[in-house]
Amino acid sequence: MIRLVPRTRPSLWLQAGASVAAVLLTLLFGVIMFALLGQPPFEVLSVFLTSPLSSAFDISDLLVKAGPLILIALGLAVGYRANIWNIGAEGQFLLGSIFGMGAVLALGNPSTAWAVPVILVAGAIGGMLWASIPAALRTAFNASELLTSLMLVYVAQQVLYLMVNQVWKNPLSFGWPETVELEDALQLPVMVDGTDIHAGLIVVLVVAAVLAILTFRTTFGYRMRMAELTPKALRFAGFGENATIWISLLLSGGLAGLAGAIELSSTFGKLNDQFSLGYGFTAIIVAFLGRLNPIGIVLGGLLVGFTFVGGDWIRVTHGVNDAAADVFQASLLFFVLACDLLTKYRLHWARRPTRQGMPAE
Amino acid sequence: MPEAPLLDLKGITRRFPGVLANDHVDFSITPGEIHALLGENGAGKSTLMKIIAGLLAPDEGEIRWQGQPVTIRSPIAARDLGIGMVHQHFALFEGLSVAENIALSLPKAVPGAALTKRLNAVAEQYGLELDPDTHVFSLSAGEKQRIEIVRTLLQDPKLLILDEPTSVLTPGESRQLFDTLRRLSDSGTAIVFISHKLQEVRELCDHATILRGGKVVADCRPSELKAEQIAELMLGERPPAGERIERPLGETRLQVSGLKLIRPGGAKPLEVEELALRSGEIVGVAGVAGNGQEALYRALSGEDLANRSEAILFGDVPVGRRGPNARRGLGVAFLPEERLGHAAVPNFTLTDNALLSNLIDRQLQRRGWIFRWRLARRAQSISDDHDVRHSGIDQLASGLSGGNLQKFVVGRELDKRPTCLVIDQPTWGVDPGAANRIRGELQRLAAEGAAILIISQDLDELLEMCDRLAVLHEGHLSATRPVEDWTIRSLGLAMTGAEPSEAQPTDAAPLQVAQ
Fold first, then answer.
1. Of A35, A145, A198, A360, which is the most buried if we count CB atoms within 10 A?
2. Residues B131-147: what's their mean pLDDT?
3. pLDDT tens, B184-207?
């Protein structure tokens, strides 16, 4: 009988070891799976592992995909630490893009770069407003933000379809559900010539650094690290009970909205019905991959971006079907999270089942 | 008449990482025997009892039940043998009613009406009153423990294990429980009684096994030993005697008048007409769990706001409508009853927990920026000065034993040198060594001129420490009286709702002060 016994103190060596073990297990799993699918396993793996870093274009692709994931996950992690479960970042992301587009249209799609910050701020406000709905429902009626935030994703998707199919539909789009394109000046400047690496990624890094400092060095972060499960301790420390809920939802919603606006003024350049790519959901995984730690989230986002690009490559080069590529990507996340569990708990082989692992005295 | 043992343990050994919790422990109990298991926190009592109750497997050793070697694989197996355990920490479903919680613990489904009947019968027989339809979350710790006791008794156990059962009962209730236990013992039930209260053990138990550091250090008849001798066996050394310190009284530090506070769960509101503490004075609030202790603590600490600002004055500043940190700013410190989850955050390190009640301390934080190294130094000095044993200040609060964590959180408040301290259950569930230390520190703080309000359910503690006592019953706080004017009997009556004036000290037993 195996049971899990919590470790009183996690060790750094173990955490490093767990990451290495996760990669090795993923490779082993990949060899077996691709062999069973009749693919040359080592060849497919080598494409998966090397191509994302093989060219400037691939690296830029990786970074551009990791950017919104990291930005959204940074916000979510703040709430998750405090046991506030915003799983509706996808909706807040979409509202961010819609508000960003609204700002563009309200300003008359000017060809002036000073409007870019306005678009980004509008996006953040959109995400915050959308996230404030679950916050209000939770604080006023104790409705689970987990359910309300998720359901609002589907509402947000319909709002997006309404905007691109009707309200803001570009009359010159030959019937495609999309808005007009942003003027070139409104698009985030490209940082490295010949790639898609844009200024939005700097925003991502700045946010990560600021949150890392806030979390561990300030009383604000101290409050946010206190789980909502200890409301008495929050009151004891002199913090209001509902403030944690509002702060975490507004922060995660605002960053998701910001990510939406960045995508609008970089990769997409317009609003269309393809805008909901699932970044808001994948970011949940990124948040946990990074162990809810801002630095870890940057690394986790890069890892997931890597699997996106590697997955695209094996589809192209070996005709690995979409499902198999997705399974392989997911297996990496699975093994990372499983090994992470072992850094927090140790396995105990007991001769017979027991209920408790530690002396209670 | 030497009887064959009901349960006989030989050479029980159980290891945990870095700890030998039980080291070749022998333990045996005969039918009808009331057997005390004594020891400091961490001595291995709970581990041994968990092995008997099927919650833990021993690494080595033999268990015989009625002469037959057995392996107790699970709590259900233990229950089937006839072993019932009442835990110190409650295992109740907060959202369910009393009756539902009891029904869930029974091996077979029992129809509601029949269950209520059995429940009432047991409750009456043993004097453990319970309303079957109340939801558990609205009950006090004392009431929750009653559920645990009743539901174990419903299974007609041959061996009943009680882990600190009296820590939340009034003297009268304890006496009733002892009658119950004696009756159970007369009918042949063996009882293992774990307690920190040596007087009780001497009064109730036939035998005592004393554990220290996982080993049996003595098997004795507690009635033949003095409490000091037993304490010495438990601690391995004589506990330091609590000295009475002469304290001059100064100006009024805390004044409560006309305080009212709604309590959750339909309980009667908290009402305090008049309470005043002067510098150098220790005032105690006695009462059975669930009579408004937490509400009183929360009202004084600012975690709940009072009906009006003038209801609570610290010095001469009205603070009734101000939050905890505004009150701390006036030099007042607070410590709630619940260590983990209220006085400390379980998954925070000791360093982070050192900040919990110090967020206004400009040594540790300025404009929201935390000085980590100063905070670490503070955590270290709290640990060093208050004998907190841990493997480093980066250890999680949840990893510390109850006594050590309590020393840490008490130390955190004391190191602020507060002018007034409100402390709820300063030594609840703490081993005698740590409890003595904490009491000594509180007395020293008072001697330095602080006013201290102790809310406690431990009467011995209140009688030992306090200058004046008031009693909290159904939310109402009585007027204070000097401790010499109270007797165990008059206190017990007041705690159960009788008018204090009805109990004249003339016919009462002389005041018993522990240690």
1. A145
2. 77
3. 888 888 999 987 677 788 888 999
CA-CA distance, A81 to A245, in Å (whole number)? 11
Q: How far apart are alpha carbons A194 and A192 in whole angstroms?
A: 6
Is there a contact between A361 and B41 if contact means CB atoms under 8 Å apart? yes
Which among A235, A236, A359 is the nearest to B21, CB-wise?
Answer: A359
Task: Say if the Cβ atoms of A352 and B21 lie within 8 Å.
Answer: no
ipTM: 0.76
Q: From the centroid of its chain, how far is CA B515? A: 18
Q: How confident is the model at residue A357 (pLDDT cuts 50, 70, 90)?
A: very low
Name A3's bridge partners.
A348
- Is B366 near chain A, with CB under 8 Å? no
For A244, residues 6+ apart whose C-beta sits below 8 A from its C-beta are A82, A84, A223, A224, A226, A228, A234
DSSP state of B355: H
Q: How far is the C-alpha of B414 from the C-alpha of B406, rounded, in Å? A: 12
Q: Mark yes or no for CB contact A360/B50 under 8 Å.
A: yes
Any chain B CB within 8 A of the CB of A11? no
Q: Best interface-test mutation with A: which of B37, B59, B74, B356 has the largest number of A CBs within 10 A?
A: B356
Evaluated on CA atoms A49, A53, A55, A60, the torsion sign reads: positive
Across the interface, of A232, A237, A358, the residue whose CB is closest to B341 is A232
pLDDT, position A355:
44
Q: Does A32 touch chain B (CB under 8 A)?
A: no
Residues contacting residue B440 through CB under 8 Å, at least 6 positions apart: B240, B242, B243
More confident residue, B418 or B155: B418
- Write out the two tokens for B437: 């230390």
Give the one of A226, A227, A359 whose C-beta lies nearest to B19's C-beta: A359
What tokens does A339 get?
Answer: 């090994």
Q: Do A232 and B56 touch (CB under 8 A)?
A: no
Per the CB < 8 A criterion, the answer to whether A212 and A78 are in contact is: no
Q: Per DSSP, what are the bridge partners of residue B64?
A: B8, B69
The answer to whether A9 touches B394, Cβ cutoff 8 Å, is: yes
Q: Does B43 touch chain A (CB under 8 A)?
A: yes
What is the SS3 assignment for B211? strand
Chain B closest CA to A226's CA: distance in Å?
A: 7
CA atoms within 13 A on the CB side of B275: 32
**DSSP character at residue A205:** H
Best of A7, A8, A351, A361 to disrupt the B interface (most B CBs within 10 Å) is A361
Question: Residue type at A127?
Answer: G
With CA atoms as reference, report the closest residue to A6 among A248, A239, A346. A346
* Predicted pLDDT of residue B498: 53
Residues in chain B: 515
Residue with tokens 């022998």: B26
Angle between helices A200-217 and A243-263 in degrees, nearest 10: 160
Question: What pairs with residue A4 in β-bridges?
Answer: A347
Q: Looking at this protein, which amino acid is placed at residue B511?
A: L
List the single best residue of B12, B56, B76, B401 to mutate versus A (max A Cβ within 10 A): B56
What is the residue-averaged pLDDT of chain B?
84
Considering only A347-351, B90-94, B183-187, B267-271, which range has the smallest mean pLDDT?
A347-351
Q: How far apart are CA A100 and CA A187, in angstroms?
A: 12
> Pick from B56, B334, B338: which is nearest to A356 by CB?
B56
Residue B505 pLDDT > 60, yes or no?
Answer: no
Dist CA A37 CA A33 (whole Å)? 6
> Residue B514: what pLDDT?
38
Q: Does B178 contact chain A (CB < 8 Å)?
A: no
Please tell me the distance in Å from A75's CA to the nearest CA on chain B: 20
**Please, are residues A125 and A99 in contact by the beta-carbon 8 Å criterion?**
yes
Q: Does B20 touch chain A (CB under 8 A)?
A: no
| Across A125-139, B146-160, B301-315, least confident range | B146-160
Q: What is the mean pLDDT of residues B344-356?
A: 93
